[in-house]
Amino acid sequence: MTTDATLASHLQELRRGTVVVASLTVLRTPGYGYSLLETLSESGFEVEANTLYPLLRRLETQGLLTSSWNTDEARPRKFYTTTPQGNAIADALRTEWARLDEAITDLSTTPVKE
């Protein structure tokens, strides 16, 4: 029997990788962390800030994002943008996601062999 905690754990694991793809895709247009949180949430990706900000730093360290500070407003904001390498990774990950989705769909419609 599946418990709510077990399901929650598996859903968190499933979402972990999809947040990378979603972030790299959204940040093709420059954006700051809070706006990314809002955009992801509006699209159905529930991500905590304490998960997203370390992810953004890691993606920047890997060369998949660049950042710059916008000091034009009263409160400075750090804007992130996907790099060409980040775009290539995002494209490859979306292609793999589509392939896996198709494979799972095929598995779910294939009769179980006894």
From TrEMBL:
One of its GO terms (molecular function) is DNA binding. It holds the Pfam family PadR. InterPro entries: Metal_resp_DNA-bind_regulator, Tscrpt_reg_PadR_N, WH-like_DNA-bd_sf, WH_DNA-bd_sf. Keywords: DNA-binding. Residues 26-88 form the Transcription regulator PadR N-terminal domain. This is DNA-binding PadR family transcriptional regulator. It comes from Paractinoplanes abujensis. The lineage of its organism: Bacteria, Bacillati, Actinomycetota, Actinomycetes, Micromonosporales.
